[in-house]
Design a protein that fits this description.
Elements (H helix, E strand, L loop, with lengths): L3 E9 L4 E4 L5 E15 L4 E15 L1 H9 L5 E14 L5 E14 L4 E3 L15 E7 L7 E4 L24
Parallel strand pairs: 4-6
Antiparallel strand pairs: 1-3, 1-5, 2-3, 3-4, 5-6, 7-8, 8-9
Length: about 170
Amino acid sequence: MYEAMVTVIGTVVTHPVKRGLTNGEQVVTFRMASNSRRFNPETSEWVDSGTLYLTVSCWRRLVVGVDASLRRGDPIIAHGQLRTHEYRARDGVERRDVEMRASSIGPDLSRCTAQVVRRAVSGAASGPGTLARNSCDRSSTDDRARVDGEGPGEDATTAPPQPADTEPVDA
């Protein structure tokens, strides 16, 4: 079997959904879009030249971090195994979907800022999660994300304010 590992830079376009499977495992899935833009020297403008949409699935240790951190509109960098999923739609038409089984996901720091809150070491006592400020451009209106494990003790009132001088960037 092939193992095409790729890195895709884009934007989360659906709210991530966490599901529990019958075998006890959990998975978080969402859709992301990656736009290709090229600079046209003749017009001195950026031109859109297509969008790649793919479904991203997150397993094991990635479930907690993605579920706590990502929202629709967040700019991300996703790395994982690329596959195509072929199926027959309800209307009888054969379709294909590009899927990524992610091994790593993080914020695209060229389009946002992020505060890193490390999880408690496995086996260590962990208290309630702390709040971390998510200041990604085009983020959801709820800009606080629950983070697992011990943190620096920040709450919504002591978290650093979002920068006011961010520039909107097309994703």
